[in-house]
Amino acid sequence: MKPLFIRAEWDEEASVWVATSDDVPGLATEDATMEALITKLKIMIPELFEANGNDIGHDLPFELLTRRFEVARRTAEL
Predict the structure, then answer these.
(1) Model confidence, pTM
(2) Which class does domain 4-67 fall in?
(3) pLDDT value of residue 58
(4) Strand, helix or coil at 25?
(5) Is the separation of the CB atoms in 8 and 64 below 8 Å?
(6) Closest CA to 54 of 6, 19, 4
């Protein structure tokens, strides 16, 4: 099975990672750390597949693409 594609973007205001996916109908979740988000996704993805009437008699591999914007500033010269 082709891996499901999940996007996770950092929400600076809320200080959380927000995950969504076109491959998993209804998926919209967030968590403060990437590790906690992945743990949550491992539970939610099969639940959402079942809720949408899909047979999940197998593993559901997923690919997580993360995006976070930052600013690098030059330090003061010595």
Answers:
(1) 0.84
(2) alpha beta
(3) 80
(4) coil
(5) yes
(6) 4
The set of long-range contacts for 69-75, using a CB threshold of 8 Å and a minimum separation of 24, is 69/10, 69/12
Q: Are 39 and 26 in contact (CB under 8 A)?
A: no
Contact at 8 Å (CB) between 41 and 6? yes
Cα-Cα-Cα-Cα dihedral sign, residues 42, 47, 50, 54:
negative
Contact, 5 vs 62, CB < 8 A? Answer: yes
Per-residue pLDDT of the chain (78 residues; tens, 9 = 90+): 789 999 999 999 999 999 999 999 999 999 999 999 999 999 999 999 899 888 777 889 999 999 999 889 888 766
